[in-house]
Amino acid sequence: MVSTPKAPSPTETANAQSGMNRDTAQTQQLTNMINQTGPDGSLTYNQTGWNSFVDSSGKTVNIPKFTATTALSPQQQAIKAQTDAASLNLGTIANERSEFLKDYLSTPFDVNTAVEDKINALGSARLDPRFAADEEKLRTRLANQGIQEGSDAWKSAYANFDQGKNDAYNQLALTGRSQAFQEASAERAQPLNEIIGLLSGSQVQQPQFVSTPQTNVAGVDYAGLVSDKYKADTAAAQSKMGGLFGLLSAPFGMFSFGA
User: Fold this and answer.
1) pTM for the whole thing?
2) Is there a contact between 98 and 202 (Cβ–Cβ < 8 Å)?
3) pLDDT in tens, 54-106
4) Average pLDDT over every residue of 247-257
């Protein structure tokens, strides 16, 4: 008796295919996790447990969990310890220095007053000594000329001297305003720049990891193989049945019987 093959179960085929896919994935993962060793350190993969999930059929599937560990060489570890300590010190100093910013920044920055103060400071440093010397020379010259203090000639000479002095200070105010503004602004920002500089040297360094090399492993087309086998078995069964029907439909006289 010839019978056609039973069709494969889609669920069983899918479950088997899923299991083979996981096997392929695990093989590929294990193949890819290559331990690396270099002059500055190493990268090592170790299984550290299991991850589990429930698949579509309700079964719990366990897959291994791995951890990649980066280790520095002794020399690089010593360098890292030193730089970490330096960064911590810079961060500590920045934190301590930032305390005064509460009062410092709460005081409004009066640009005009700051510029005027800076111009006066520039005048005191540059012009005052010069005019003090010039005034002493003027006194000596007037005395040598016999011009008495308080006379019209004395007052006229001093008026000219004071006018030149005022002109010099006014010129300083006009030409030195830009410089005074830059210096006043720089002084205002100096504490902030110091703290920013300290913080830039104490930033947390993000760890750098080496990418895992990738090696592809071809999966097994189990569902395709089952389908192909079913088609082949069905074709073979149909071929046998076709041959049997051919014999049954042959003329009766073609058969001979013994005496």
Assistant:
1) 0.44
2) no
3) 877 788 988 888 888 888 888 888 888 888 888 888 788 878 777 777 776 66
4) 52
Tokens of 28: 């590929």
Residue 108 has pLDDT above 50, yes or no: yes
Structure tokens, 210: 């080496």
> Containing H/E element for 187?
helix 177-200
Cβ–Cβ < 8 Å for 65, 82 = no
Exposure of 68 in the CB half-sphere (CA atoms within 13 A): 17
Residues 6+ apart with CB under 8 A from 47: 64, 65, 66, 67
Bridge partners of 52?
Answer: 62
Residue ranges per structural domain of the chain = 33-72, 78-200
Residue 67 Cα to chain centre, angstroms: 22
pLDDT mean over 48-55: 89
DSSP state of 146: T
CB 31 within 8 A of CB 215: yes
What gap in Å lies between CA 101 and CA 95, rounded to an integer? 10
pLDDT digits (tens, 9 = 90+) for 146-163: 888 889 888 888 899 888
Query: What span, in angstroms and rounded, lies between the C-alpha atoms of 33 and 88?
Result: 35
